[in-house]
Design a protein that fits this description.
Blueprint: E1 36-41, H1 45-54, E2 56-61, E3 66-71, H2 73-81, E4 86-88, H3 90-97, H4 115-128, E5 133-140, H5 142-145, E6 149-150, E7 156-157, E8 161-167, E9 177-179, E10 182-184, E11 190-195, H6 202-217, H7 226-231, E12 233-237, H8 242-250, H9 318-330, E13 350-355, E14 360-363, H10 377-391, E15 394-397, H11 411-419, E16 423-427, H12 436-456, H13 461-464, E17 469-478, E18 481-489, E19 498-504, E20 516-518, E21 520-521, E22 530-539, E23 548-556, E24 565-569, E25 580-583
Parallel strand pairs: 11-12, 11-13, 13-16, 14-15
Antiparallel strand pairs: 1-3, 1-4, 2-3, 5-8, 6-7, 8-12, 9-10, 14-16, 17-18, 18-22, 19-20, 19-23, 21-22, 23-24, 24-25
Helix pairs in contact: 6-12, 10-12
Length: about 600
């Protein structure tokens, strides 16, 4: 587990915007491409602010008052010559940069897809599942609007469509209506998963695309996925910043580089920034400093070559304009105009933005302003803790991450601030250029259950996270009679009295009216925060071929319904011990 102070430039922080350092510590004028990780000591907030707004800082260690940053040979020498205390970190250099990692000529850095391959897969999924998917062109990247860009080295950036894949069973009433770039929201709850705002964070595009494929492939076989696809909408955007991703890929084609460029920002080319993109000079706008809400206060820079350049103004970049518009069309504004206004408990919708790296879950507020606690902090923190339980990642409020000075114009603050919905940043993995094998195994196994849980509470996230949770659920079948036992508890989050456990043959309220069966408490009554229960026996022969899907959930005395567990029964013609399949819709370890 990487320390909480690990800083993956998504969360680069910099307060004290007016702080100054000595004149002889201005940005150097030369660089080469022999990159390495170095440790630089700082003395006070002004020097820290200078380092993190000028260079590519990867980690802040407040205890030792030092930072790790990515440097080339000339930059390391420059800092040393100008009285900075510098230490080389060869082991960290090898781990993060992986100069000797094997890469196939037929794949991108060991297996990742480039833009063209991602588009091809999105199109293939849309063609393979026409009733469950819609591939939506929700806007154009900057370079497409400009009819193409050109890097300072003359390399073409053609520009791209901004693509989102909507996953939802269109045959079930309530799905949004899409007409070109206009979207009329439906009545289904919405989960938005975006990735690739920062283009060099290779694990996130792959994870977003894989989650889309996994949901579709498991739709007919896994009742944990089926209700989400039927009764909700999941919008997956694998690459928010396609122009920047094209720049990253260019590095594998440049003879002197031969590895992905560590390009973070979009494709807005600015004169005077180094090319190829370096640690200390980097063209483009940091899209995760460009969102409208709270733009331009802390943790940003007005230097166009800075890693955290926030742009000419709020939502100055078309990639952010398009993403803000898309979410506005899908999710209603459910929070008042003031910073202190809370969204109501029945708020619907939820968003996750995936970045790398650090193995943390960041939640609002993170802009360093007062008051620093979000009005819906109770529900937001509970969801973050739940995601932490599932992933093993550390939940942390944005204002307490890194050096704690805040980051303005970021996605999580924007989506919570504008819509009132829970909004999180998931920092995946342990490095930017993560080994593909690590992404496809460890990161995927850690993260996709958390994405599934997030989707499962999209209907009313502040409510569902407060409801009782089920554990130890044990369904059994004898002579086609189903019995369910288990434990239900409201202790961890609500600590209210559990009043019921029910099983339904369709999704719980507020969807269709299902057939409902009520459990009995083993001690005779539901009247404490934790209860064991028995439900049944239920005669399965009342269902065609004994086949049915069941959703079990608990309710407390505040009327709060908890997340469901789902399972299915099989055919009457197979032995009883083979006809039961148990699928945890959301199970606490």
């Amino acid at each position: 587990m990487i320390s909480l102070v690990l800083f993956a430039l998504l969360a680069t922080v910099a307060g004290f915007a007016n702080a100054t350092v000595e004149a002889n510590k201005e940005q150097p004028a030369a660089a080469d491409q022999r990159l390495q990780i170095i440790r630089v000591a700082y003395d006070g907030y002004a020097e820290l602010d200078y380092l993190i707004t000028t260079f590519d800082v990867w980690e802040i260690q407040a205890v030792t008052q030092s930072v790790l940053l990515l440097a080339d040979k000339d930059l390391a020498q420059y800092l040393h010559n100008n009285d900075w205390q510098v230490k080389l970190e060869p082991e960290l250099t090898d781990f993060h940069l992986g100069a000797k990692r094997s890469r196939s000529i037929e794949t991108f850095f060991g297996g990742y897809k480039n833009n063209d391959e991602i588009i091809a897969e999105l199109q293939a999924l849309n063609a393979a599942y026409p009733e469950l998917t819609e591939l939506v062109d929700y806007g154009d990247s900057l370079c497409k609007i400009l009819n193409g860009c050109e890097t300072p080295g003359g390399d073409p950036l053609p520009g791209r469509d901004l693509l989102a894949l909507r996953i939802s069973n269109e045959a079930i009433t309530g799905t949004s209506v899409i007409s070109d770039s206009t979207i009329i929201s439906g009545t289904k709850p919405v989960f938005v998963l975006d990735a690739g705002i920062h283009s060099r964070e290779l694990s996130v595009q792959e994870t977003g695309l894989r989650f889309a494929r996994w949901m579709l492939e498991n739709y007919t076989t896994d009742p944990a996925v089926k209700p989400i696809v039927d009764w909700q909408e999941t919008w997956i955007i694998p690459v928010v910043n396609p122009d920047g991703f094209d720049v990253v890929f260019l590095g594998t084609q440049l003879i002197l580089i031969d590895q992905p460029l560590l390009h973070r920002k979009n494709g807005r080319v600015t004169n005077g920034c180094f090319w190829p993109s370096t640690v200390s000079s980097h063209f483009g706008v940091d899209l995760n400093r460009n969102f409208s809400f709270g733009w331009g206060t802390n943790g940003t820079s007005t230097n166009p070559c800075s890693q955290v350049f926030n742009g000419a103004g709020p939502a100055s970049e078309p990639e952010i304009v398009a993403l803000e518009k898309l979410v506005t069309q899908l999710i209603p504004d459910q929070r008042g105009p003031n910073r202190e206004d809370a969204a109501p408990p029945e708020t619907t919708g939820i968003i996750i933005s995936m970045h790398s790296f650090g193995e943390v879950i960041i939640y609002p507020w993170g802009d360093g302003l007062f008051p620093d606690e979000a009005p819906n902090a109770d529900g937001i923190v509970k969801i973050a803790n739940r995601l932490g339980d599932i992933t093993g990642y550390d939940p942390v409020q944005g204002n307490n991450f890194g050096s704690g000075f805040g980051v303005s114009g970021a996605s999580d603050d924007h989506f919570y601030g504008e819509f009132g919905i829970p909004s999180f940043t998931l920092e995946l993995g342990t490095t930017f250029l993560q080994d593909y094998g690590y992404t496809s195994t460890t990161i995927w196994n850690d993260v996709h259950p958390a994405l599934l849980y997030t989707a499962s509470i999209a209907r009313e996230p502040y409510q569902l996270v407060n409801g009782p949770e089920l554990s130890g659920l044990t369904p059994s079948v004898t002579d086609n009679m189903l019995t369910i036992t288990g434990t239900v508890s409201d202790v961890e989050f609500g600590n209210n009295l559990v009043v019921s456990v029910t099983v339904q043959t369709d999704m719980p309220h507020p969807f269709e009216a299902p057939q409902t069966f009520v459990a009995g408490a083993q001690d005779g009554s539901f009247d404490s925060p934790t209860e064991t229960f028995t439900l049944g026996p239920i005669d399965l022969t009342q269902f065609e071929d004994c086949s049915a899907e069941f959703y079990v959930h608990g309710t407390d005395d505040a009327g709060q319904v908890g997340p469901s567990l789902a399972f299915s029964t099989g055919s009457c013609e197979v032995p009883d011990d083979q006809q039961l399949s148990f699928f945890p819709f959301m199970a606490k370890e």
